[in-house]
Amino acid sequence: MKEFLLLFRGGEGDELRKSPEAWQKHMEIWGKWMGELSEQGKMLGAQPLERTGHVINGTQKIVTDGPFMEGKEMVGGYLMCKAENYDEALAIARECPILEFDNGIVEVREVASLNM
Predict the structure, then answer these.
(1) CA–CA gap between residue 91 and residue 94 (Å, rounded)
(2) 56 close to 63: Cβ distance less than 8 angstroms
């Protein structure tokens, strides 16, 4: 089994911001999806990310507020999973609840092993 990182971007529909009931239902869908992955032994961990943060740049290590970008580009969370190959990881990603929204994006990246 290989490890994959799924990065979540966008995916906030207006209806979720306006309705606590819609937000709760959406969170239940996330819980079900992640629960199934966990039961299958494929989920290694997952967390949402705060919208605030800092960026450190260059050799002078200058710290600035950020990241500042459009909402659809901001990484809102991640999930680490195990899969046999990219095809299986993509199949897992295709079921992600963030894709219920036109602006929902899941980036799938294989975790490289460090040969130290």
Answers:
(1) 5
(2) yes
